[in-house]
Protein 1
Amino acid sequence: MQLVTAEVGPFKSINEPQTVHVDPSVTVLVGMNEAGKTVCLQALEKSDDTVELAAFDPVEDYPRKDLSTYLKQHKSKPARVTKFTYRLSKEELDELNGDLRTNLRTDFEFSILRFYDNTLTIEISVDETPVLASLRDEPGLSSDVKAALASITRIRDIPGTLTQIGLTEKDKPWLAKIQQRINKTNWDSIVEWEVWEWLKPRVPKFAFFGEYELLPSKINLADLANRVHQVQTWKAQNPNQSARLAPKVLESQHRGVLALLRMADISVEDFTKPSGYESLKARLEAVSIQLTDQILEFWKQNEDLEVEVDIKADPNDVAPFNNGPNLYLRIKNRRHRGVSTPFRQRSRGFTWFFSFLVWFDSVQHQLEADRELRARDLILLLDEPGLNLHALAQADFLRYIDDLANKHQVLYTTHSPFMIHTDRLHQVRVVEDRVKVGTVISDTVSSSDPRTIFPLQAALGWTLAQNLFISERNLLVEGPSDLLYLKALSSIIEAQGRVGLREEITIVPAGGLDKVVTFIALLGASGLKLAVLHDYQGRPEQKLEDLVRQKLISPKAVLDASQFRDLASLGKSWRPSDTEDLLSPSLYLDYFSRTFEKQLGGKKVTETDLPPGDRILHRIERYLADAGTLLRPSGGFNHYAVASKFVSEPPASVDPDTLARFEALFRAVNTLL
């Protein structure tokens, strides 16, 4: 069974009811701090939480600005606070129709409305006609009864209609069963009530996990046992009362430790038994190892962490920790020779993850232990999961959420760009706190405050950087002109049946040698395959040499233009060269002249016009300076404009030496990557 929509409000900062369209698997609430993301989850939790401890309290939950007015009507007319609409799976629908002889369609939905006095109302619509038809087909019914049933549209009307008909001996027990069904409810529609009774034990419950549910570093077992005893005594004295009314002596940290003990099959009473230390500790350590192994399936930031459990007394500690044994939780880091620290003081992300697993196991255990709840699905409500995790660890946790979503619907809040799947923006709901309006929840981002949707923009920017310009295999070049020449020449060479650059290799223009170095330092650590093609100044580049020495890139993966300039000595760096020097001077000058034809007055510049030198770009710039020709205010000329001209109007033919140089370059890069 899936939650389709949740209407929330008025509730705390939600002044006007807000409709949240719930994704079948994962729904992400994105917004600024104090926008109302957590408030939305709290409203869902208080509607029907798994541990049955949360409840609506108008003084605490109703929007404060209207509270005085509302309290005057609360007892006589409590306000609606949530409305949940559900849809059944095909398997559930088939089972329901088979059990009750209904004919509900695949689009069947029903709603549960909850009010501030913690009562509920059901909105459900079921056609009784198919059920009535099955009743008319009951074997042995007399023809008179069947004829009378033909005009009936409600089961509730059957007894009254048959009062004037003489019933046979087979008709009477049939009618008695009908009367029993009617007597069970005061609902107008018997079938609607029966459908609801079938649905009720299957409606998903909400399970909320936030920052306050973290396990403690230590807890006094005598104090814990006393708190448990108080709750058990109250339940024994009030067997028909809701657990929500029990004394609030068990806080989240106590329930977390009880969950850990339950996983180890230990009760708090076990700690009072003499000579039980070794057995208890062994069972707790076994559970800790099991949970740590579960975490490390998704936790890839530091796989040397483990949770250590100890039980001991400390009469010198402060109360209540000086009264009998305490349970201590610590995190041990094998990377640092087994140094351990209290659970709450180290690796906040790891402690959150560990606490979540303990809590989640506890919730599942409670459902399994309760026969009435066993068939229910869970809807997980996670408040700022991964808040204390490194960006890459957040990506790990996203995988864990996807794993949870295979069995449970998940709603979580975040303002981190790394907790958003950019290929699933349909799962995002934007939460804003608008002036004089309050919390507003929307599934559209077009009119949202830029500050609110910043995480989405940042996530998209990160994805673009990772996927649009960067792939598994990357050739880093200094500028966009290099990219254009390499792309164009690769196409020309491949058209001749020769070796061009492999399609899966992405050319990444970094914007200068300094940025090439930064790209290598950042991307090399991500396990990507990298090669570099840079301009050669006539001497080794110190920054690249440093990266090679730090083993961030292989020396073989650092290429320069001069290595492919002389076909007789390929692979040798010998004189200053740019990528443009791999083109024959006549070919490059032809495109230079055509690009700046208007500024040059139609003159075709040839190599004999240029001063001597190693690099065609420098020779042209010196020629322009000597001739007093100004192609741009800062001097020189726009190299990219010539490259753009080359790509937009590729040459009909290219000289053999130019083709050979670029083919040698492509072969080298293909081999490296």
Protein 2
Amino acid sequence: MEWIRGERIGHGSFGTVDIARMRNFDNCSVMAVKSCAYSHSSSLANEKEILDVLKDCPQIIQSFGDCYSFENNEKLYNVLLEYATGGDLGDKVKNSSSGKLSEFEVQRCTKSILQGIYSIHENGFVHCDIKLQNVLLFSSKFGGNNSIKIADFGLAKRARKLNSGCELRGTPMYMSPEMVAGGEQEAPADIWALGCMVVEMLTGAPAWKCRRETDFGGLFMRIGVGEEVPEIPKELSEDGKDFLGKCFVKDPRSRWTAEMLLRHPFLANDDLNCQVTSTSPRSAFDFPDWVSEQSSQMTVLPSPECSSKHGSFDEFDNFESFSTWPAIRLNELVTDQKTPNWSVFDSWVTVRS
């Protein structure tokens, strides 16, 4: 496959995203190419493999292959992706006239995102970083009627798969209670993050009121301990409030699944684009008996010098360990000595949408 690297549209600690201009390629001539050094390519290669599995879902960004290249005396690993002409959903909310979306727009966006999440979960994966910035917008030329697609699977993992301890991964503002308190990140964590997205689309502000760079300790205590959940917008319809209530269930075993939420009245305005045929629970009382997999230890992310949002956690050996007992774990998370550097999750900088 012949392609030419064009202008840069984003970059992070270990990689870049550039325009790729294609030669003799069916359907489109402009794509995005996500590149990183070969020595740090395991996470990007894993992302490409997951996208290959999810290629039949129109709400997931499509990969058009991968390759290696030698540029400036360095071997690079490249993954070719659809180019999102409309930017990301965070930009859409921020640039709207009121700084937020109407309830109808939120319903439409939420349904498409849920269809994508449903496909991710049905294929045995957890995205682990569902947020507005990882939902891309496409024109009809690229996306047809499915103009909203989930992207950035750099942190995605196989469901119920544990590595050497549970990894603390994701974006703090969207983290679920079980992630903060016990290092557990399975399909229900994506649903909690979806609820945070819905609140942010409706209000134009994060679901949790928190000084972004300085108050993560207090945020973790609110998320991981007690019964507090994000405030549900008062102006939202009763169906919308009930929908969010099903997302913000503290116990992940009782939180509604993607399939259940797709059948919720809040999303009745649009026809489903993805067929829902599995045997997932139909109500909050129909969950199978299962026990969440826990590990005796979890790991904290390395500093930005060692990793980025797209870095592979398996590549690093010198993580600090934490007890998974919630009180001890949370106490360690908020101390100065062991506070993770969360700036790693915002390391990708959008240069041009």
